[in-house]
Amino acid sequence: MTELGIAMIGHAFMGAAHSQAWRVAPRFFDLPLRPVMSVLAGRDAGRAAAAADRLGWAEAVTDWRSVLERDDVHVVDICTPGDTHAEIAIAALDAGKHVLCEKPMANTVAEAVAMAEAAERAAARGVRAMVGFSYRRVPALGLARDLVARGRLGRIHHVRAQYLQDWIVDPAAPLSWRLDKAKAGSGALGDIGAHIVDATQFILGDTIREVVGTMETFVTERPLATEHSGLSGTASDETGPVTVDDAALFLARFAGGALGSFEATRFANGRKNALRIEVNGSAGSLAFDFEDMNVLQFFDGTEDSAVAGFRRIVVTEPEHPYVGSWWPAGHGLGYEHAFTHQVVDFVRAVAEGTDPAPTFADGLRVQRVLAAVEDSAASGTWHQV
Amino acid sequence: MTELGIAMIGHAFMGAAHSQAWRVAPRFFDLPLRPVMSVLAGRDAGRAAAAADRLGWAEAVTDWRSVLERDDVHVVDICTPGDTHAEIAIAALDAGKHVLCEKPMANTVAEAVAMAEAAERAAARGVRAMVGFSYRRVPALGLARDLVARGRLGRIHHVRAQYLQDWIVDPAAPLSWRLDKAKAGSGALGDIGAHIVDATQFILGDTIREVVGTMETFVTERPLATEHSGLSGTASDETGPVTVDDAALFLARFAGGALGSFEATRFANGRKNALRIEVNGSAGSLAFDFEDMNVLQFFDGTEDSAVAGFRRIVVTEPEHPYVGSWWPAGHGLGYEHAFTHQVVDFVRAVAEGTDPAPTFADGLRVQRVLAAVEDSAASGTWHQV
Amino acid sequence: MTELGIAMIGHAFMGAAHSQAWRVAPRFFDLPLRPVMSVLAGRDAGRAAAAADRLGWAEAVTDWRSVLERDDVHVVDICTPGDTHAEIAIAALDAGKHVLCEKPMANTVAEAVAMAEAAERAAARGVRAMVGFSYRRVPALGLARDLVARGRLGRIHHVRAQYLQDWIVDPAAPLSWRLDKAKAGSGALGDIGAHIVDATQFILGDTIREVVGTMETFVTERPLATEHSGLSGTASDETGPVTVDDAALFLARFAGGALGSFEATRFANGRKNALRIEVNGSAGSLAFDFEDMNVLQFFDGTEDSAVAGFRRIVVTEPEHPYVGSWWPAGHGLGYEHAFTHQVVDFVRAVAEGTDPAPTFADGLRVQRVLAAVEDSAASGTWHQV
Amino acid sequence: MTELGIAMIGHAFMGAAHSQAWRVAPRFFDLPLRPVMSVLAGRDAGRAAAAADRLGWAEAVTDWRSVLERDDVHVVDICTPGDTHAEIAIAALDAGKHVLCEKPMANTVAEAVAMAEAAERAAARGVRAMVGFSYRRVPALGLARDLVARGRLGRIHHVRAQYLQDWIVDPAAPLSWRLDKAKAGSGALGDIGAHIVDATQFILGDTIREVVGTMETFVTERPLATEHSGLSGTASDETGPVTVDDAALFLARFAGGALGSFEATRFANGRKNALRIEVNGSAGSLAFDFEDMNVLQFFDGTEDSAVAGFRRIVVTEPEHPYVGSWWPAGHGLGYEHAFTHQVVDFVRAVAEGTDPAPTFADGLRVQRVLAAVEDSAASGTWHQV
Ligand SMILES: NC(=O)C1=CN([C@@H]2O[C@H](COP(=O)(O)OP(=O)(O)OC[C@H]3O[C@@H](n4cnc5c(N)ncnc54)[C@H](O)[C@@H]3O)[C@@H](O)[C@H]2O)C=CC1
Ligand SMILES: NC(=O)C1=CN([C@@H]2O[C@H](COP(=O)(O)OP(=O)(O)OC[C@H]3O[C@@H](n4cnc5c(N)ncnc54)[C@H](O)[C@@H]3O)[C@@H](O)[C@H]2O)C=CC1
Ligand SMILES: NC(=O)C1=CN([C@@H]2O[C@H](COP(=O)(O)OP(=O)(O)OC[C@H]3O[C@@H](n4cnc5c(N)ncnc54)[C@H](O)[C@@H]3O)[C@@H](O)[C@H]2O)C=CC1
Ligand SMILES: NC(=O)C1=CN([C@@H]2O[C@H](COP(=O)(O)OP(=O)(O)OC[C@H]3O[C@@H](n4cnc5c(N)ncnc54)[C@H](O)[C@@H]3O)[C@@H](O)[C@H]2O)C=CC1
């Protein structure tokens, strides 16, 4: 089988998740190409080498640009903070490498536009680009989209989406890069709000047209971090300013007429990773909470009302998206599986010569929504996306 | 409208629940007879008078026998401990009074046989008798029975029934009459186990044929109670022996082939009144928990498995049993409503000249199951009912 | 005991709920005055008489003004649509009658101001006024307020409140008075949105300072209703325009700094009466859903994280608000009990000579929030309350 | 790092789960030895080779005995049906190979005794043996055991354990080896009942002393399977007898005094893999359902009853068993992770020279319980374990 050489840039939280995906995907899914975990790029030689060893990459380098020149690298998998995405992705695409880029696609609309253009140029040459909105690949959300697409919800009236976390409710939690606008672009908005923007647009097959929102930083000064990765870190004695939002809320109108209510926060005490989506339509409703990720609630409004009710569909049947390749019914999946599914779809699209979704155009569309929310929060009025 | 004079014996926990039922039923339901809360009987004149005033009875007496002689009394409503049921019920029936008798119907099978015979004699004269298995009148359980009767579950394979409470998990909880075999007949078995025996037989439209079980008294000595009513009381300095079971568990086989697992306990820490029933059939399943009493879970096994799941039916639709007389959908009922429904069905049966269910024959059938469990617990083998 | 004569105006949905409350309150609670259900006022003589008989009122009249002149009437209980509240309440207060007025207090801020002024005048003469925001008296929400007041949640960051119903998702549902701006003032906003505005302000002990919102009418033309009461009605062949909102959504900022997200809709398919409130604070969180009304979820963020989690508090313990007067733990209450508690507090306040909450000033505060939402929906910008 | 060569026997359902565990464990956990997926043994050369390729094993053989002679094999991992366990395990241990053997350990007590003896002999030579009761390694159940061990539940009164599946509720489901007594030893009892026996003994740190039970085969004749693996298969036109139980129920008494109620069934329509355990003690309770596997419900009975309630602990905190090596809080694990944890503990024990639990002695103890249930089902009386 033809090999598909992968270079991964960044090797911490997402680095571990993506490595697991590359490693595991071919063991459970029939892939048309054999992914090879060729090289990992980090900034520090020692840490990169240790990571490559731990995560199972053949080699480690400290200059990500070097991987673009290698013939054994066909894919660049970007797992670094948002400020680096545009530069790496555009360079990789221009070098003829397929790109899987973590979300949010960029830190600004300008960057995202440039990336989408690069992706379009690349596509003309058969080079593919995809954004890592991994929650699309949670089977329950795939099923949600199917139900909407098949008309089981009828005309959509309401979308209610929240992404609730609590990892910095403690004012002593340190200033990781996620709290630094220069690195992260925004706070809760881009980090987790981006996911519910993408996921709801995906489920509805519709786009957000206008928004009105507000953003808030509850704790404006925090200890600097001596070391950090993913969501954890160690606090130092010095402090610095938090330059991003702790929470972002907005109302939205979809092009198709649905009303949306969105909230992303890192201050929802007791909610660890509660990505929740509820959709109400003229014929039915559905509800999802990532804290119970193998379940989709579905209300069929066409049933006799004496026996109608939200059904707790355990999304582990062979006919559910992706599930047939894993375990028997009732043997649930975990967080990382969505990343494996992402890699499966990516590899298949590359092999088939199609554009894997979410495309960079989709990523740009999300970016425009985030920007409209920020603009709205500043102006206090509705903004078109 | 013709009046139906009621005499109630006993006036504490059930006294309050039954009073509420008599008071409220005609306000929400069309009754063919107008219940009149004529007289309440207690043992202590002062307390009985106070109770009559509080609960809304026209009069109070201390000798329950006196009410049997009154022409303005047509119904005797027995709300006293189990040791008194047989004597009062038989006397009342023989005096031509309709009887609503609290559960468990009696403390022994012998008493229950005598009561069932008295009921049969009475029925021949148009006098009615009913046992107060109130949970039958929770709308969700009425719906459960309907679903089984309409074949929505197919052939029944499994019944799983638990009645879990924790009100005496504290060893300092006093020795109320419920812990005294002479008064109560048995402990958890007759007090709450009787409910799940009746409710499952009711839902299935089937009877338990044989059982094997065990009983346990975890705390064998407790402070005497200086005063008590319902589930609460005050402890004294002296102690006495607990003469009933704290918990009773048994396996059962129904006549129709279903396998049952039953458990009644007062030691399930944190479970306040968790009457839970799950039924699995060849075509579907249902599940109920009284801690969420307005909900019935229903699994329709004939659905496409991609969208099948336990449905959380909120049993508050107008077409659900009894519900149409109350509030709009979603405005749930409480504990006491089942007693109101009980009174409604009782009054209607009296007016129509039919036997209100559960009849004393049904009560006897439950009693035989309880006795078989006790026998089995003693012998260690299966016992026929 | 001194009697407290009640006159009730309107006798359909709320009429039944209030009647039940007046009837039942003295049976379970020690009241300093004995409520007497003296007279009911309706517009149609026949229907009023039938209602009085069914609901248990001594007398029926067709002119509500007549009750203001009666010496045996001390309380006027207003259970009519919003367009009548101001006129009746002001007349009653000026006539020296205590007033219990259903929510929303009025249809406009101007009316509400006049009512609050009348209440202030009346209070000076010992005459009391209260608004029927009944959900305040659901024990779980009383406990929620207690927890916030006792600092168990710390500084409040987030409030998430939804009131979701689906009773007009069917476009064939008829045009009841609730869909007529002249009668109802607004649609989902005033009918159910008012409840979550009041309830969140109550729980937080804080007020909403500014809002930005949007409103939507999904179905703009409906069959006229030939007859209707509460939430149900019969459709005729003619149609007419819907003049109110089907859904209203808004973001809010509380004076104390909390961010709020509110949504009221009658188009949430499958949600029957889902009044949901979630509050996140620096020390903990709580969550409530009226579809499981006897439960409050509480997260104590000060606990060791290995054993922390949202606790499902079954709010049926004797020490919970109002509960001790009812049944043993685990024997839940229903929809109507909040109305009974409302009457209990009202009667006690009248007897004690204090102002029962929510006062007309509270009602006005809610009205101002509703008006700010409407203004914001029209202008597309934030509005101060 | 020293290598630990693995040979896996059997390569279907458990083969895939164990392969994933060997592959993934060293990527997330610090292991003292480096597992090498050396060789896989199957019966058919073609299928074994395909499996080795798919699952990532260096080599495939058709004679499992051959692997015992290889120096590069240090561990034999048995993933075949129960009838083969004793022979393979004893041979492997006697050949000086560490053994990880799937559950139930054997098909009979006699086999299990021989295996336990072999394990004891082997231990004397530093060779280790472990049984694959994988659910012990679900973090929530590890936490459950911790809570019991730390006394947070006090004296244990009740254990309620169910393992509910529905994969053969359809009478047309084919006769896989799991329905053949010669291969499987028993049906639901050994396949899934064994798990709840082990898990409850593990959580309590106690053993079952006596049982009374019953077993049932609802569908006694089924189509033969043309092909099958794990829980799925293809039906042929011929039929054959089902020689095992579809369901097994029993009551139990633990040595420490707790009462247990157990049920294992493949006929619980709608329940896919509902391994449920509830434990009630004098100081608290806990509840678990594998359909929500990242959650443990815990009731702390020592709390003020006004705020006590079952806590939904999301068992994804760094301090929870195994979790710290995976993802941030709230990013749940799936079915396969328990197998990874099993491998981690196994490798560590091998390196440290300690006996990994559950030992073969533990496996034998479970086997004795299963045998006692079968004996009891036959005799209708209680049996000592
Ligand atoms: N799909 C999803 O659900 C998630 C997506 N993400 C996204 O993944 C990306 C990475 O986030 P995490 O892995 O959580 O962060 P992290 O802090 O755990 O790891 C970032 C990695 O990037 C490396 N890095 C940082 N700056 C670099 C540079 N200039 N050049 C090369 N390497 C650099 C760091 O050394 C580290 O290895 C972000 O865009 C984030 O939004 C993060 C978490 C979940
Ligand atoms: N349907 C249901 O769900 C329930 C049924 N019950 C049943 O109701 C009956 C009464 O139980 P509770 O009301 O809970 O008990 P309780 O202790 O609250 O009240 C018993 C009442 O009977 C009176 N009483 C006792 N012995 C008497 C005698 N010899 N003569 C006259 N009056 C006597 C007492 O003074 C007291 O008023 C029992 O059979 C019990 O099993 C109890 C609770 C719930
Ligand atoms: N607290 C709560 O949760 C609830 C409050 N409400 C409020 O209660 C009030 C009444 O609502 P419902 O009872 O649901 O309405 P409904 O339509 O069921 O009853 C209205 C009653 O008012 C009478 N009525 C109407 N116009 C009248 C007039 N001009 N003069 C005298 N009587 C008149 C009608 O004949 C009818 O008896 C409204 O303000 C509503 O917002 C309603 C439902 C729940
Ligand atoms: N820990 C757990 O939760 C689970 C444990 N199990 C246990 O794992 C074992 C295997 O079950 P599954 O993998 O589900 O079965 P399966 O039917 O999926 O696979 C059995 C494998 O064993 C092979 N095999 C059968 N007989 C053989 C023989 N005589 N020699 C060599 N290979 C042979 C088959 O070719 C197949 O590869 C059983 O003991 C079962 O009880 C199964 C499922 C879950």
TrEMBL record, chains A, B, C, D:
InterPro entries: Gfo/Idh/MocA-like_OxRdtase_N, Gfo/Idh/MocA_oxidrdct_glycsds, GFO_IDH_MocA-like_dom, NAD(P)-bd_dom_sf. The keyword Oxidoreductase applies. Keywords: Oxidoreductase. Coiled coil: none annotated. It comes from the Bacteria. One of its GO terms (molecular function) is oxidoreductase activity. Residues 5-124 form the Gfo/Idh/MocA-like oxidoreductase N-terminal domain. This is Predicted dehydrogenase. It comes from Lentzea fradiae.
